[in-house]
TrEMBL record:
Residue stretches making up the Lipoyl-binding domain: 585-666
InterPro entries attached to this UniProt entry: ATP-grasp, BC-like_N, Biotin_BS, Biotin_carboxylase_complex, Biotin_carboxylation_dom, Biotin_COase_C, Biotin_lipoyl, CPAse_ATP-bd
Keywords: ATP-binding, Biotin, Ligase, Nucleotide-binding
Name of the protein this chain belongs to: Biotin carboxylase N-terminal domain-containing protein
Record bears the keyword Nucleotide-binding: yes
Domain ATP-grasp: from-to ranges: 115-302
Required cofactor(s): biotin
């Protein structure tokens, strides 16, 4: 039996496994890199072993270091988590060779699954529907086609090719990107991504757990999952589960995993792959089935049998969203920084199946967590379980909208807009959902009046904080004078550029007038900004309460509470209308060095991976200059226009921060 378990992963994955271990009486061992010294998964473990370094390749993906850590900590079993190690046959074999229990599929099965072409061949021989596979461009009979890497996961290297003229270059580009072989298969438009979670033991039993709808994706990465699928009826569910069982047995699979299918509008489906991990979206399956899948996974790893005769019944509906640190201002690239506050309201459960409908949060972060560039940008998974799909969608959208998420930008607003979209509510989903509905990318806080009120609340809270800290006369209203005086003003750098807010208070401390205007960035060079008149179009506002962390405004008879969390010169404002981060601009800013007009700067922190040009080289518009590696992905930096590379101050392997100079390109 498993006595002490090392989890070869970090963040919410490690915390999720630890939660079940505590429940069933298994001691836990965490591993951690330099930057994860005080991470929540380290604090919660019974034992923790340091892996010197920061990059995944030097720490969490180091087979020898992980085996040594398990042996030093006295662990007799290893759980691989859900990342690359969970699919690495060499790591699985090393654990077994070291005499420890491996909580995953057999190494031989992982070797087969590592080759997607061979996997599809074996599944096809077992009479499971599979799309044709082409490894030679000349074999492709028609278009469009999808290019996929022959190994690897996570959506890296997948691209659509719509004509023969671009196929050869697309294949060559994909091979360079993934560093290996690729294959083509027909592209199925308007298709859904459906997966069947399974549990298989070494005694021949295979149990499916219904299906999960994973069609809402961006860059081939899932962002919303749910079960059951609104497109799957009982007959289709039975067919999908039967095909999943056949595929599992054809591949000799043992453990927890998911068989992934493509489903078209006519109800036809095709096998995509068998993912040999617990999957990040296992929480929705736990909610509707009532089973702890981690407990079952560990039971099978100990040699036990699946404890149920067949698929468990589905209870209600569950929806999961992946909250990720991503910057919409930079094409949704991963974002880094300090998470100053992360608070989700009304959480009913953490890391375990819910006993009754409610909200569950699986998070690897907490207030003060540092979101670095070396790991996946996912912060947490929020799950809602309710009797119906409509109730679950409404519940999770409301909780997300009221979440306080300060310090790093995220995809939270996108998730809320998708969940509230009429097409999502109607179940009209496929993998092109976001392409068809670009309106979901708009921020929640988009109305002019809502932005104005947020700026006003930030200014009032800032004034209250300064009055509370004043050494004398701290009880006087902010801005009070014996004689009438000018308005108080503050300038904030908001999501759409600088804005100035001004307000006047009367002798009783009531708001006498206020205005907000957009500011030309060139005006910020002036020592003082001009006073704008009180705008007639602004609604009457009464300040009910103005503290440093909460402002209550009465707007035309409707009272609204606004939370303000100030960190340094940034005010994080949360209201029923949405959330916004406002950085207060100093009235007397220090001069900053100006970058050359043709400078290319880093859009995110990362490590320079490849440099494809040299100083003096002429480049075309759109030509790839270099790549940055951040959060397990490679991000390209292209030439914005034709020109000559005049300066290249970085080298491969060098770590850069956001805004750091990468190259100077003199345009022609």
């Amino acid at each position: 039996m498993i006595r002490r378990l090392l989890v070869a992963d970090r963040g919410e994955v490690a915390r999720r496994v630890f939660a079940t271990c505590r429940l069933v009486g298994i001691e836990t061992v965490a591993v951690y890199s330099d930057v994860d010294t005080d991470a929540p998964h380290v604090i919660e473990a019974d034992y923790a072993v340091h892996l010197p370094g920061n990059t995944p390749s030097a720490t969490y993906l180091q087979t020898e270091a992980l085996i040594a850590a398990a042996q030093r900590a006295g662990a007799n079993a290893v759980h691989p988590g859900i990342g690359k190690l969970a699919e690495d046959p060499d790591f699985a074999a090393a654990v077994v060779d070291a005499g420890m229990i491996w909580a995953g599929p057999p190494p031989a099965t992982l070797r087969t699954l590592a080759d997607k072409i061979e996997t599809k061949k074996l599944v096809a021989e077992a009479q499971v529907p599979v799309l044709p596979t082409f490894t030679d461009p000349d074999q492709v009979p028609g278009f469009p086609v999808l290019i996929k890497p022959a190994s690897g996961t996570g959506g890296l290297g997948i691209r659509v090719v719509r004509d023969a003229g671009t196929l050869a270059e697309a294949i060559a580009s994909t091979r360079r990107e993934v560093g290996g072989e690729v294959f083509c298969e027909p592209y199925v438009g308007n298709a859904r991504h459906i997966e069947v979670p399974i549990l298989a033991d070494a005694h021949g039993s295979v149990v499916p757990f219904g299906e999960r709808e994973c069609s809402v994706q961006r860059r081939y990465q899932k962002i919303i999952e749910e079960t059951p699928s609104p497109a799957v009826d009982p007959a289709l569910r039975e067919d999908l589960c039967r095909a999943a069982i056949i595929a599992v047995r054809a591949l000799g699979y043992v453990g927890a995993g998911a068989v992934e299918f493509l489903l078209d509008a006519q109800g036809d489906f095709w096998f995509l792959e068998l993912t040999p991990t617990l999957q990040a979206d296992h929480a929705v399956t736990e909610c509707v089935s009532g089973y702890d899948l981690v407990r079952l996974q560990l039971l099978v790893a100990e040699g036990g049998s699946v404890p149920m005769p067949g698929p468990p019944p589905i209870r209600g509906h569950a929806i999961e969203v992946r909250i990720c640190a991503e910057d919409p201002a930079y094409a949704w690239l991963p974002a880094a920084g300090t998470l100053h506050r992360f608070a989700v309201p009304d959480i009913a459960g953490w890391f375990r199946p819910l006993p009754q409908p409610g909200l569950r949060l699986d998070a690897g972060v907490a207030d003060g967590s540092v979101i670095g560039m070396h790991h996946d940008p996912m912060l947490a998974k929020l799950v809602a379980w309710a009797p119906s799909r409509q109730e679950a969608a409404r519940m999770i959208a409301s909780a997300l909208a009221r979440t306080h998420l300060h310090g790093v930008v995220s995809n939270r607003d996108l998730l809320v807009r998708v969940l509230r979209h009429h097409a999502f509510r109607a179940g009209d989903l496929d993998t092109g959902f976001l392409d068809r509905h670009p309106e979901v990318f708009a921020p929640l806080l988009s109305s002019v009046d809502a932005v104005r009120l947020s700026c006003l609340a930030a200014a009032l809270a800032g004034a209250a904080a300064r009055r509370a800290a004043a050494p004398v006369l701290g009880s006087l209203p902010s801005g009070w004078r014996n004689v009438p005086s000018g308005s108080q003003t503050a300038v904030y750098d908001g999501p759409t550029g600088p804005v100035e807010v001004g307000y006047r208070m009367n002798r009783r401390g009531d708001l006498a007038g206020w205005w907000v205007r957009a500011v030309d960035p060139e005006e910020l060079d002036l020592a003082g900004l001009g006073q704008a008149p009180v705008a007639d179009e602004h609604p009457a506002v009464v300040v009910v309460q103005a503290d440093s962390d909460r402002v209550v405004l009465n707007v035309q008879g409707i009272r609204m509470g606004v939370h303000v969390h100030r960190v340094g010169d940034v005010s994080y404002v949360d209201s029923p209308e949405g959330s916004v981060a406002l950085r207060e601009i100093s009235r007397f800013p220090l001069p900053a060095p100006e970058a050359a007009e043709s400078s290319l700067i880093a859009p995110l922190p990362g490590a320079v991976r490849r440099i494809l040009v040299v100083p003096g080289q002429r480049v075309r518009a759109g030509e790839l200059l270099l790549t940055l590696e951040a959060m397990k992905l490679e991000h390209p930096v292209h030439a914005p226009s034709a020109g000559v590379v005049s300066s290249l101050p970085v080298q491969p392997g060098v770590e850069v921060d956001t805004g750091e100079l990468l190259a100077v390109l003199d345009p022609e």
